[in-house]
Amino acid sequence: MSIFLIVLLVSIVAIALVFVFSIISKRRISLNQESKQALVLPDISTEELERARQEAMMIKERAKEEAEKLLSAAREEALQIKQSAKQESETLRLDLEQRKKEFEEFLSERRTQISNLEQILKQRENALERREDMLSRREEELFNLEKELRETRRRIEAEQKALELRLASIEEKEREIESLRQKEMLELQRIASMTFQEARQEILKRAEEEARLDVLRLIKQIEEEAKEKAELEAKRIITTSIQKLSSEIAVNYTTASVDLPNNEFKGRIIGREGRNIRTFELLTGVDLIIDDTPDIVTISSFDPLRREIAREALERLIQDGRIHPARIEEVVNEVKREIDDKIRKTGEETCHELGLHDINPGLYYYIGKLYFRTSYSQNVLLHSKEVANLAGLMASELGLNSQLARRAGLLHDIGKAISNETGGSHTDIGVELCKKFGEHDAVLNAIRAHHDEEPVRYPEVALVCAADALSAARPGARRESLELYLKRLEKLEEIVRSFKGVQNVYAMQAGREVRVIVNPEELSDEEAYGLSRSIARKIEEQLQFPGQIKVVVIRETRHVEVAK
Predict the structure, then answer these.
(1) Where are the beta strands (DSSP E) in 287-401?
(2) Which of 59, 84, 91, 550 could hold 513 in an S-S bridge, CB 3.0 to 4.6 Å?
(3) Which of 3.90.700.10, 3.40.50.1110, 3.30.1370.10, 1.10.8.60 is the CATH number of 255-343?
(4) What is the β-pairing status of strands 513-518 and 550-554?
(5) What is the DSSP letter of 272?
(6) Could you give the C-alpha distances from 501 to 194, 491, 521, in angstroms and in order?
(7) Is the pTM of this model over 0.90?
Protein backbone atom coordinates (compact mmCIF):
# COMPACT_ATOMS: atom_id res chain seq x y z
CA MET A 1 0.00 0.00 0.00
CA SER A 2 2.86 2.42 0.79
CA ILE A 3 4.58 1.70 -2.60
CA PHE A 4 1.39 2.64 -4.42
CA LEU A 5 1.21 5.97 -2.59
CA ILE A 6 4.88 6.76 -3.41
CA VAL A 7 4.32 5.99 -7.11
CA LEU A 8 1.21 8.21 -7.09
CA LEU A 9 3.13 11.04 -5.44
CA VAL A 10 6.02 10.81 -7.95
CA SER A 11 3.60 10.81 -10.88
CA ILE A 12 1.81 13.92 -9.55
CA VAL A 13 5.16 15.76 -9.15
CA ALA A 14 6.21 14.75 -12.69
CA ILE A 15 2.92 16.03 -14.13
CA ALA A 16 3.34 19.35 -12.30
CA LEU A 17 6.88 19.75 -13.60
CA VAL A 18 5.78 18.92 -17.16
CA PHE A 19 3.03 21.51 -16.84
CA VAL A 20 5.47 24.19 -15.63
CA PHE A 21 8.02 23.43 -18.34
CA SER A 22 5.31 23.59 -21.04
CA ILE A 23 4.29 27.07 -19.87
CA ILE A 24 7.91 28.20 -19.89
CA SER A 25 8.45 26.78 -23.40
CA LYS A 26 5.33 28.56 -24.64
CA ARG A 27 6.62 31.87 -23.24
CA ARG A 28 10.00 31.34 -24.87
CA ILE A 29 8.34 30.59 -28.25
CA SER A 30 6.29 33.79 -28.04
CA LEU A 31 9.40 35.83 -27.21
CA ASN A 32 11.31 34.32 -30.10
CA GLN A 33 8.48 35.18 -32.46
CA GLU A 34 8.41 38.78 -31.23
CA SER A 35 12.18 39.05 -31.66
CA LYS A 36 11.92 37.68 -35.18
CA GLN A 37 9.19 40.17 -36.02
CA ALA A 38 11.41 42.92 -34.72
CA LEU A 39 14.23 41.74 -36.96
CA VAL A 40 11.95 41.65 -40.00
CA LEU A 41 11.04 45.31 -39.76
CA PRO A 42 14.14 47.16 -41.05
CA ASP A 43 12.67 50.56 -40.86
CA ILE A 44 12.18 50.51 -37.05
CA SER A 45 14.36 53.02 -35.24
CA THR A 46 17.00 52.23 -32.72
CA GLU A 47 14.97 53.69 -29.88
CA GLU A 48 12.02 51.56 -30.69
CA LEU A 49 14.32 48.58 -30.97
CA GLU A 50 15.73 49.35 -27.53
CA ARG A 51 12.22 49.68 -26.12
CA ALA A 52 11.29 46.44 -27.74
CA ARG A 53 14.33 44.81 -26.16
CA GLN A 54 13.46 46.21 -22.77
CA GLU A 55 9.90 45.07 -23.16
CA ALA A 56 11.20 41.70 -24.24
CA MET A 57 13.45 41.64 -21.18
CA MET A 58 10.53 42.64 -18.96
CA ILE A 59 8.32 40.05 -20.58
CA LYS A 60 11.09 37.52 -20.12
CA GLU A 61 11.50 38.55 -16.46
CA ARG A 62 7.76 38.38 -15.89
CA ALA A 63 7.64 35.02 -17.62
CA LYS A 64 10.54 33.86 -15.49
CA GLU A 65 8.84 35.13 -12.32
CA GLU A 66 5.56 33.53 -13.33
CA ALA A 67 7.41 30.33 -14.13
CA GLU A 68 9.12 30.45 -10.74
CA LYS A 69 5.80 31.18 -9.04
CA LEU A 70 4.17 28.32 -10.91
CA LEU A 71 7.11 26.08 -10.11
CA SER A 72 6.97 27.13 -6.45
CA ALA A 73 3.21 26.61 -6.37
CA ALA A 74 3.65 23.25 -8.08
CA ARG A 75 6.30 22.28 -5.54
CA GLU A 76 4.12 23.40 -2.63
CA GLU A 77 1.18 21.56 -4.10
CA ALA A 78 3.38 18.49 -4.65
CA LEU A 79 4.66 18.79 -1.07
CA GLN A 80 1.11 19.07 0.26
CA ILE A 81 0.06 16.15 -1.87
CA LYS A 82 3.08 14.20 -0.60
CA GLN A 83 2.32 15.06 3.03
CA SER A 84 -1.38 14.23 2.65
CA ALA A 85 -0.43 11.01 0.89
CA LYS A 86 2.05 10.25 3.66
CA GLN A 87 -0.58 10.96 6.35
CA GLU A 88 -3.13 8.84 4.54
CA SER A 89 -0.58 6.05 4.13
CA GLU A 90 0.32 6.27 7.86
CA THR A 91 -3.37 6.28 8.79
CA LEU A 92 -3.98 3.32 6.53
CA ARG A 93 -0.91 1.55 7.97
CA LEU A 94 -2.06 2.11 11.57
CA ASP A 95 -5.56 1.02 10.65
CA LEU A 96 -4.18 -2.10 8.99
CA GLU A 97 -1.94 -2.86 11.97
CA GLN A 98 -4.87 -2.39 14.35
CA ARG A 99 -7.04 -4.67 12.26
CA LYS A 100 -4.20 -7.18 11.99
CA LYS A 101 -3.72 -7.09 15.77
CA GLU A 102 -7.47 -7.50 16.37
CA PHE A 103 -7.57 -10.34 13.87
CA GLU A 104 -4.57 -12.04 15.51
CA GLU A 105 -6.16 -11.65 18.97
CA PHE A 106 -9.42 -13.01 17.64
CA LEU A 107 -7.55 -15.87 15.95
CA SER A 108 -5.56 -16.60 19.15
CA GLU A 109 -8.74 -16.55 21.21
CA ARG A 110 -10.44 -18.91 18.79
CA ARG A 111 -7.42 -21.20 18.82
CA THR A 112 -7.43 -21.20 22.64
CA GLN A 113 -11.14 -21.99 22.67
CA ILE A 114 -10.62 -24.76 20.15
CA SER A 115 -7.68 -26.14 22.18
CA ASN A 116 -9.76 -26.03 25.38
CA LEU A 117 -12.62 -27.75 23.62
CA GLU A 118 -10.24 -30.40 22.31
CA GLN A 119 -8.85 -30.95 25.83
CA ILE A 120 -12.36 -31.19 27.29
CA LEU A 121 -13.34 -33.65 24.57
CA LYS A 122 -10.17 -35.65 25.19
CA GLN A 123 -10.82 -35.70 28.95
CA ARG A 124 -14.39 -36.81 28.36
CA GLU A 125 -13.19 -39.49 25.99
CA ASN A 126 -10.67 -40.67 28.59
CA ALA A 127 -13.34 -40.60 31.31
CA LEU A 128 -15.69 -42.59 29.08
CA GLU A 129 -12.92 -45.08 28.33
CA ARG A 130 -12.14 -45.44 32.04
CA ARG A 131 -15.82 -45.86 32.81
CA GLU A 132 -16.12 -48.47 30.09
CA ASP A 133 -13.08 -50.29 31.49
CA MET A 134 -14.53 -50.08 34.98
CA LEU A 135 -17.89 -51.38 33.81
CA SER A 136 -16.23 -54.23 31.94
CA ARG A 137 -14.18 -55.11 35.03
CA ARG A 138 -17.30 -54.93 37.18
CA GLU A 139 -19.14 -57.18 34.77
CA GLU A 140 -16.24 -59.61 34.79
CA GLU A 141 -16.09 -59.50 38.61
CA LEU A 142 -19.86 -60.05 38.83
CA PHE A 143 -19.58 -62.95 36.43
CA ASN A 144 -16.74 -64.48 38.46
CA LEU A 145 -18.65 -63.83 41.69
CA GLU A 146 -21.76 -65.53 40.31
CA LYS A 147 -19.61 -68.43 39.19
CA GLU A 148 -18.01 -68.67 42.62
CA LEU A 149 -21.44 -68.45 44.28
CA ARG A 150 -22.71 -71.29 42.12
CA GLU A 151 -19.66 -73.36 42.98
CA THR A 152 -20.08 -72.49 46.67
CA ARG A 153 -23.75 -73.54 46.53
CA ARG A 154 -22.77 -76.82 44.94
CA ARG A 155 -20.11 -77.41 47.60
CA ILE A 156 -22.56 -76.51 50.37
CA GLU A 157 -25.17 -78.86 48.94
CA ALA A 158 -22.58 -81.62 48.67
CA GLU A 159 -21.44 -80.96 52.24
CA GLN A 160 -25.05 -80.99 53.44
CA LYS A 161 -25.60 -84.32 51.79
CA ALA A 162 -22.38 -85.64 53.29
CA LEU A 163 -23.44 -84.34 56.71
CA GLU A 164 -26.85 -85.95 56.35
CA LEU A 165 -25.21 -89.23 55.47
CA ARG A 166 -22.82 -88.83 58.38
CA LEU A 167 -25.69 -88.02 60.74
CA ALA A 168 -27.56 -91.08 59.50
CA SER A 169 -24.48 -93.23 60.11
CA ILE A 170 -24.09 -91.67 63.57
CA GLU A 171 -27.73 -92.44 64.39
CA GLU A 172 -27.20 -95.98 63.17
CA LYS A 173 -24.12 -96.29 65.36
CA GLU A 174 -26.05 -94.88 68.30
CA ARG A 175 -28.72 -97.54 67.82
CA GLU A 176 -26.03 -100.22 67.63
CA ILE A 177 -24.39 -98.79 70.74
CA GLU A 178 -27.75 -98.83 72.54
CA SER A 179 -28.37 -102.51 71.63
CA LEU A 180 -24.82 -103.39 72.66
CA ARG A 181 -25.33 -101.48 75.89
CA GLN A 182 -28.48 -103.50 76.63
CA LYS A 183 -26.70 -106.73 75.89
CA GLU A 184 -23.71 -105.72 77.97
CA MET A 185 -25.97 -104.72 80.87
CA LEU A 186 -27.69 -108.09 80.83
CA GLU A 187 -24.37 -109.87 80.54
CA LEU A 188 -22.91 -107.85 83.40
CA GLN A 189 -25.95 -108.56 85.55
CA ARG A 190 -25.65 -112.24 84.78
CA ILE A 191 -21.88 -112.51 85.24
CA ALA A 192 -21.08 -110.00 87.96
CA SER A 193 -24.37 -110.24 89.84
CA MET A 194 -24.55 -106.40 89.75
CA THR A 195 -27.66 -104.47 90.52
CA PHE A 196 -29.44 -102.68 87.73
CA GLN A 197 -28.28 -99.25 88.90
CA GLU A 198 -24.63 -100.35 89.23
CA ALA A 199 -24.63 -101.92 85.76
CA ARG A 200 -26.36 -98.88 84.35
CA GLN A 201 -23.73 -96.51 85.78
CA GLU A 202 -20.88 -98.66 84.52
CA ILE A 203 -22.32 -98.83 81.01
CA LEU A 204 -23.05 -95.11 80.94
CA LYS A 205 -19.49 -94.38 82.00
CA ARG A 206 -18.03 -96.56 79.24
CA ALA A 207 -20.48 -95.21 76.66
CA GLU A 208 -19.66 -91.65 77.70
CA GLU A 209 -15.93 -92.26 77.25
CA GLU A 210 -16.43 -93.87 73.84
CA ALA A 211 -18.89 -91.18 72.73
CA ARG A 212 -16.53 -88.43 73.89
CA LEU A 213 -13.70 -89.89 71.83
CA ASP A 214 -15.99 -90.32 68.81
CA VAL A 215 -17.23 -86.72 69.16
CA LEU A 216 -13.66 -85.43 69.42
CA ARG A 217 -12.69 -87.34 66.29
CA LEU A 218 -15.76 -86.08 64.43
CA ILE A 219 -15.24 -82.50 65.60
CA LYS A 220 -11.60 -82.66 64.58
CA GLN A 221 -12.47 -84.00 61.13
CA ILE A 222 -15.24 -81.44 60.53
CA GLU A 223 -13.10 -78.55 61.82
CA GLU A 224 -10.15 -79.61 59.68
CA GLU A 225 -12.31 -79.73 56.56
CA ALA A 226 -14.00 -76.41 57.37
CA LYS A 227 -10.67 -74.78 58.21
CA GLU A 228 -9.13 -76.03 55.00
CA LYS A 229 -11.94 -74.63 52.86
CA ALA A 230 -12.23 -71.41 54.83
CA GLU A 231 -8.46 -70.95 54.79
CA LEU A 232 -8.31 -71.41 51.02
CA GLU A 233 -11.12 -68.89 50.47
CA ALA A 234 -9.63 -66.42 52.95
CA LYS A 235 -6.19 -66.78 51.37
CA ARG A 236 -7.67 -66.10 47.95
CA ILE A 237 -9.49 -62.96 49.11
CA ILE A 238 -6.54 -61.63 51.12
CA THR A 239 -4.07 -62.42 48.34
CA THR A 240 -6.27 -60.69 45.77
CA SER A 241 -6.60 -57.63 47.99
CA ILE A 242 -2.89 -57.41 48.79
CA GLN A 243 -1.94 -57.84 45.12
CA LYS A 244 -4.08 -54.81 44.26
CA LEU A 245 -2.45 -52.74 47.01
CA SER A 246 1.24 -51.99 47.26
CA SER A 247 1.94 -49.75 50.26
CA GLU A 248 5.19 -48.31 51.46
CA ILE A 249 6.64 -49.42 54.78
CA ALA A 250 7.26 -46.20 56.69
CA VAL A 251 9.50 -46.33 59.75
CA ASN A 252 9.99 -43.05 61.62
CA TYR A 253 13.00 -42.33 63.78
CA THR A 254 13.59 -39.83 66.58
CA THR A 255 16.15 -37.58 64.90
CA ALA A 256 16.41 -35.41 61.80
CA SER A 257 19.44 -33.73 60.22
CA VAL A 258 19.70 -30.23 58.76
CA ASP A 259 22.55 -29.34 56.40
CA LEU A 260 24.46 -26.07 56.95
CA PRO A 261 26.10 -23.95 54.23
CA ASN A 262 29.29 -23.94 56.29
CA ASN A 263 30.49 -24.69 59.81
CA GLU A 264 30.30 -21.02 60.87
CA PHE A 265 26.51 -21.27 61.15
CA LYS A 266 26.87 -23.46 64.24
CA GLY A 267 28.14 -20.46 66.21
CA ARG A 268 25.30 -18.29 64.89
CA ILE A 269 22.74 -20.94 65.86
CA ILE A 270 24.16 -21.16 69.39
CA GLY A 271 24.29 -17.36 69.70
CA ARG A 272 25.89 -15.19 72.34
CA GLU A 273 26.00 -17.13 75.64
CA GLY A 274 23.67 -19.71 74.06
CA ARG A 275 20.65 -17.38 73.76
CA ASN A 276 19.62 -18.49 70.27
CA ILE A 277 19.74 -22.24 70.89
CA ARG A 278 17.91 -21.92 74.25
CA THR A 279 15.15 -19.84 72.61
CA PHE A 280 14.84 -22.30 69.73
CA GLU A 281 14.63 -25.36 72.01
CA LEU A 282 12.14 -23.62 74.33
CA LEU A 283 9.80 -22.62 71.46
CA THR A 284 9.94 -25.94 69.54
CA GLY A 285 10.31 -28.44 72.39
CA VAL A 286 13.19 -30.32 70.74
CA ASP A 287 16.88 -30.82 71.47
CA LEU A 288 19.48 -29.40 69.07
CA ILE A 289 22.61 -31.54 68.91
CA ILE A 290 25.60 -29.54 67.66
CA ASP A 291 28.68 -31.77 67.65
CA ASP A 292 31.88 -32.14 65.63
CA THR A 293 30.06 -33.45 62.55
CA PRO A 294 30.90 -30.93 59.81
CA ASP A 295 28.08 -28.81 58.32
CA ILE A 296 25.25 -30.77 60.05
CA VAL A 297 22.93 -30.02 62.98
CA THR A 298 20.83 -32.85 64.46
CA ILE A 299 17.28 -32.34 65.79
CA SER A 300 16.21 -34.87 68.44
CA SER A 301 12.61 -35.39 69.60
CA PHE A 302 10.20 -38.31 70.11
CA ASP A 303 7.34 -36.15 68.77
CA PRO A 304 7.40 -36.15 64.90
CA LEU A 305 5.27 -32.99 64.77
CA ARG A 306 7.70 -31.00 66.93
CA ARG A 307 10.60 -32.43 64.95
CA GLU A 308 9.03 -31.33 61.64
CA ILE A 309 8.28 -27.81 62.95
CA ALA A 310 11.85 -27.48 64.25
CA ARG A 311 13.38 -28.75 61.00
CA GLU A 312 11.34 -26.39 58.81
CA ALA A 313 11.99 -23.40 61.11
CA LEU A 314 15.74 -24.07 61.29
CA GLU A 315 16.03 -24.40 57.50
CA ARG A 316 14.23 -21.06 57.04
CA LEU A 317 16.45 -19.33 59.61
CA ILE A 318 19.58 -20.66 57.90
CA GLN A 319 18.30 -19.54 54.51
CA ASP A 320 17.34 -16.10 55.85
CA GLY A 321 20.61 -15.63 57.74
CA ARG A 322 19.04 -13.54 60.52
CA ILE A 323 19.25 -15.69 63.66
CA HIS A 324 18.29 -13.96 66.91
CA PRO A 325 15.60 -14.65 69.56
CA ALA A 326 12.95 -12.32 68.10
CA ARG A 327 13.40 -13.68 64.57
CA ILE A 328 13.39 -17.27 65.89
CA GLU A 329 10.05 -16.70 67.64
CA GLU A 330 8.58 -15.10 64.50
CA VAL A 331 9.69 -17.94 62.20
CA VAL A 332 8.58 -20.71 64.60
CA ASN A 333 5.08 -19.20 64.95
CA GLU A 334 4.84 -18.81 61.17
CA VAL A 335 5.88 -22.44 60.61
CA LYS A 336 3.37 -23.66 63.22
CA ARG A 337 0.53 -21.89 61.39
CA GLU A 338 1.64 -23.33 58.03
CA ILE A 339 1.99 -26.84 59.51
CA ASP A 340 -1.59 -26.61 60.86
CA ASP A 341 -2.85 -25.69 57.38
CA LYS A 342 -0.76 -28.49 55.88
CA ILE A 343 -2.21 -31.00 58.39
CA ARG A 344 -5.78 -30.03 57.50
CA LYS A 345 -5.01 -30.21 53.77
CA THR A 346 -3.36 -33.64 54.20
CA GLY A 347 -6.49 -34.96 55.94
CA GLU A 348 -8.73 -33.60 53.19
CA GLU A 349 -6.54 -35.08 50.43
CA THR A 350 -6.52 -38.46 52.22
CA CYS A 351 -10.34 -38.54 52.37
CA HIS A 352 -10.64 -37.59 48.70
CA GLU A 353 -8.01 -40.17 47.75
CA LEU A 354 -10.09 -42.90 49.44
CA GLY A 355 -13.32 -41.61 47.89
CA LEU A 356 -14.80 -40.56 51.28
CA HIS A 357 -16.24 -37.20 50.24
CA ASP A 358 -18.99 -37.07 52.89
CA ILE A 359 -16.73 -37.12 55.98
CA ASN A 360 -17.31 -34.16 58.27
CA PRO A 361 -14.64 -31.49 57.49
CA GLY A 362 -14.03 -31.17 61.22
CA LEU A 363 -12.25 -34.54 61.11
CA TYR A 364 -9.78 -33.44 58.42
CA TYR A 365 -7.39 -31.93 60.98
CA TYR A 366 -7.33 -35.06 63.16
CA ILE A 367 -6.86 -37.35 60.14
CA GLY A 368 -3.97 -35.24 58.86
CA LYS A 369 -2.40 -35.16 62.32
CA LEU A 370 -2.07 -38.96 62.23
CA TYR A 371 0.85 -38.42 59.81
CA PHE A 372 2.86 -37.11 62.76
CA ARG A 373 1.97 -40.02 65.07
CA THR A 374 3.67 -43.42 65.20
CA SER A 375 2.84 -46.83 66.66
CA TYR A 376 5.77 -49.22 67.05
CA SER A 377 7.60 -46.78 64.71
CA GLN A 378 4.88 -47.27 62.06
CA ASN A 379 3.31 -44.11 60.62
CA VAL A 380 -0.31 -44.15 61.83
CA LEU A 381 -1.76 -42.29 58.81
CA LEU A 382 -0.10 -44.61 56.29
CA HIS A 383 -1.20 -47.57 58.42
CA SER A 384 -4.81 -46.27 58.50
CA LYS A 385 -4.83 -45.72 54.71
CA GLU A 386 -3.49 -49.24 54.18
CA VAL A 387 -6.16 -50.70 56.50
CA ALA A 388 -8.87 -48.70 54.67
CA ASN A 389 -7.71 -49.90 51.24
CA LEU A 390 -7.38 -53.54 52.32
CA ALA A 391 -10.77 -53.55 54.05
CA GLY A 392 -12.41 -51.88 51.03
CA LEU A 393 -10.89 -54.38 48.58
CA MET A 394 -11.91 -57.38 50.70
CA ALA A 395 -15.41 -55.93 51.12
CA SER A 396 -15.70 -55.60 47.34
CA GLU A 397 -14.60 -59.24 46.93
CA LEU A 398 -17.26 -60.38 49.43
CA GLY A 399 -20.05 -58.13 48.10
CA LEU A 400 -20.18 -55.95 51.25
CA ASN A 401 -20.26 -52.17 51.67
CA SER A 402 -16.73 -51.18 50.57
CA GLN A 403 -17.38 -47.47 51.30
CA LEU A 404 -18.25 -48.21 54.93
CA ALA A 405 -15.27 -50.58 55.26
CA ARG A 406 -12.86 -47.90 53.99
CA ARG A 407 -14.42 -45.32 56.30
CA ALA A 408 -14.10 -47.54 59.38
CA GLY A 409 -10.55 -48.54 58.38
CA LEU A 410 -9.43 -44.92 58.03
CA LEU A 411 -10.93 -43.84 61.38
CA HIS A 412 -10.18 -46.94 63.51
CA ASP A 413 -7.09 -45.25 65.06
CA ILE A 414 -8.32 -41.62 64.93
CA GLY A 415 -7.97 -41.29 68.70
CA LYS A 416 -4.16 -41.52 68.40
CA ALA A 417 -4.17 -38.04 66.84
CA ILE A 418 -4.70 -36.39 70.26
CA SER A 419 -4.19 -39.23 72.77
CA ASN A 420 -0.76 -37.83 73.69
CA GLU A 421 -2.33 -34.41 74.42
CA THR A 422 -5.47 -35.37 76.36
CA GLY A 423 -4.44 -38.68 77.92
CA GLY A 424 -6.55 -41.81 78.16
CA SER A 425 -7.17 -44.71 75.83
CA HIS A 426 -7.05 -43.85 72.12
CA THR A 427 -10.16 -45.99 71.57
CA ASP A 428 -12.24 -43.92 74.04
CA ILE A 429 -10.92 -40.68 72.53
CA GLY A 430 -11.65 -41.94 69.00
CA VAL A 431 -15.22 -42.92 69.91
CA GLU A 432 -15.86 -39.48 71.45
CA LEU A 433 -14.46 -37.72 68.37
CA CYS A 434 -16.52 -39.77 65.94
CA LYS A 435 -19.69 -39.33 68.03
CA LYS A 436 -19.04 -35.57 68.07
CA PHE A 437 -18.92 -35.47 64.25
CA GLY A 438 -21.85 -37.87 63.70
CA GLU A 439 -20.05 -40.96 62.36
CA HIS A 440 -21.75 -44.30 61.59
CA ASP A 441 -22.17 -46.86 64.39
CA ALA A 442 -19.98 -49.31 62.43
CA VAL A 443 -17.08 -46.85 62.74
CA LEU A 444 -17.53 -46.72 66.53
CA ASN A 445 -17.70 -50.53 66.63
CA ALA A 446 -14.47 -50.77 64.57
CA ILE A 447 -12.63 -48.41 66.95
CA ARG A 448 -13.41 -50.60 69.95
CA ALA A 449 -13.50 -54.03 68.28
CA HIS A 450 -10.03 -53.90 66.73
CA HIS A 451 -8.67 -54.03 70.31
CA ASP A 452 -11.28 -56.62 71.43
CA GLU A 453 -12.99 -54.12 73.74
CA GLU A 454 -16.40 -55.12 72.36
CA PRO A 455 -17.66 -57.84 69.98
CA VAL A 456 -17.83 -57.28 66.23
CA ARG A 457 -21.37 -56.31 65.16
CA TYR A 458 -20.85 -55.63 61.45
CA PRO A 459 -19.16 -57.78 58.78
CA GLU A 460 -17.27 -54.72 57.52
CA VAL A 461 -15.80 -54.27 61.02
CA ALA A 462 -14.49 -57.85 60.93
CA LEU A 463 -12.69 -56.96 57.70
CA VAL A 464 -11.22 -53.85 59.34
CA CYS A 465 -9.86 -55.99 62.21
CA ALA A 466 -8.34 -58.42 59.70
CA ALA A 467 -6.85 -55.58 57.63
CA ASP A 468 -5.41 -54.01 60.81
CA ALA A 469 -3.69 -57.30 61.65
CA LEU A 470 -2.37 -57.62 58.09
CA SER A 471 -0.97 -54.09 58.06
CA ALA A 472 0.67 -54.55 61.46
CA ALA A 473 2.12 -57.94 60.51
CA ARG A 474 3.61 -56.77 57.20
CA PRO A 475 7.38 -57.48 57.35
CA GLY A 476 9.28 -54.44 58.59
CA ALA A 477 6.15 -52.41 59.28
CA ARG A 478 6.65 -52.31 63.04
CA ARG A 479 9.55 -52.37 65.43
CA GLU A 480 9.76 -53.21 69.11
CA SER A 481 12.64 -53.04 71.53
CA LEU A 482 14.78 -56.10 72.27
CA GLU A 483 13.68 -56.05 75.90
CA LEU A 484 9.96 -56.18 75.03
CA TYR A 485 10.63 -58.87 72.44
CA LEU A 486 12.43 -61.12 74.94
CA LYS A 487 9.72 -60.56 77.56
CA ARG A 488 7.04 -61.53 75.04
CA LEU A 489 8.86 -64.77 74.16
CA GLU A 490 9.36 -65.63 77.86
CA LYS A 491 5.68 -64.98 78.58
CA LEU A 492 4.69 -67.14 75.59
CA GLU A 493 6.76 -70.10 76.78
CA GLU A 494 5.49 -69.63 80.35
CA ILE A 495 1.86 -69.78 79.19
CA VAL A 496 2.46 -73.02 77.27
CA ARG A 497 4.37 -74.72 80.12
CA SER A 498 1.43 -74.14 82.46
CA PHE A 499 -0.52 -76.96 80.74
CA LYS A 500 -0.38 -80.54 81.93
CA GLY A 501 1.57 -83.05 79.84
CA VAL A 502 3.92 -80.49 78.20
CA GLN A 503 7.55 -81.62 78.05
CA ASN A 504 9.32 -78.92 76.01
CA VAL A 505 8.38 -75.58 74.43
CA TYR A 506 10.21 -73.82 71.57
CA ALA A 507 9.30 -70.30 70.40
CA MET A 508 10.26 -70.03 66.71
CA GLN A 509 10.13 -67.52 63.82
CA ALA A 510 10.50 -64.47 66.06
CA GLY A 511 7.61 -65.57 68.25
CA ARG A 512 5.14 -66.20 65.44
CA GLU A 513 5.17 -69.98 65.99
CA VAL A 514 5.39 -72.07 69.15
CA ARG A 515 6.16 -75.79 69.04
CA VAL A 516 4.97 -77.90 71.96
CA ILE A 517 6.38 -81.37 72.70
CA VAL A 518 3.94 -83.40 74.86
CA ASN A 519 4.33 -86.67 76.78
CA PRO A 520 2.67 -89.43 74.70
CA GLU A 521 1.97 -91.49 77.83
CA GLU A 522 -0.09 -88.73 79.46
CA LEU A 523 -2.02 -87.44 76.41
CA SER A 524 -3.75 -89.20 73.52
CA ASP A 525 -3.96 -87.83 69.97
CA GLU A 526 -7.43 -86.41 70.61
CA GLU A 527 -6.28 -84.80 73.87
CA ALA A 528 -3.26 -83.31 72.08
CA TYR A 529 -5.66 -81.77 69.56
CA GLY A 530 -7.72 -80.28 72.40
CA LEU A 531 -4.51 -79.05 74.05
CA SER A 532 -3.55 -77.03 70.92
CA ARG A 533 -6.91 -75.26 70.98
CA SER A 534 -6.66 -74.54 74.71
CA ILE A 535 -3.12 -73.13 74.33
CA ALA A 536 -4.23 -70.87 71.45
CA ARG A 537 -7.17 -69.50 73.47
CA LYS A 538 -5.02 -68.84 76.54
CA ILE A 539 -2.38 -67.03 74.44
CA GLU A 540 -5.12 -64.81 72.96
CA GLU A 541 -6.43 -63.98 76.45
CA GLN A 542 -3.14 -63.31 78.26
CA LEU A 543 -0.65 -62.07 75.63
CA GLN A 544 -0.57 -59.06 73.30
CA PHE A 545 1.27 -59.71 70.06
CA PRO A 546 1.37 -58.42 66.45
CA GLY A 547 -0.06 -60.65 63.72
CA GLN A 548 -0.78 -64.24 64.71
CA ILE A 549 0.94 -67.12 66.54
CA LYS A 550 0.81 -70.65 65.17
CA VAL A 551 0.56 -73.39 67.84
CA VAL A 552 2.02 -76.77 66.82
CA VAL A 553 1.56 -79.69 69.25
CA ILE A 554 3.80 -82.70 68.57
CA ARG A 555 3.04 -86.11 70.11
CA GLU A 556 5.17 -89.06 69.14
CA THR A 557 5.97 -92.51 70.51
CA ARG A 558 9.40 -94.01 69.96
CA HIS A 559 10.22 -97.72 70.34
CA VAL A 560 13.93 -98.48 70.46
CA GLU A 561 15.49 -101.92 70.27
CA VAL A 562 19.17 -102.79 70.02
CA ALA A 563 20.36 -105.62 67.81
CA LYS A 564 23.28 -107.44 69.38
Answers:
(1) 287-289, 296-300, 374-375, 378-379
(2) 550
(3) 3.30.1370.10
(4) parallel
(5) G
(6) 36, 19, 9
(7) no
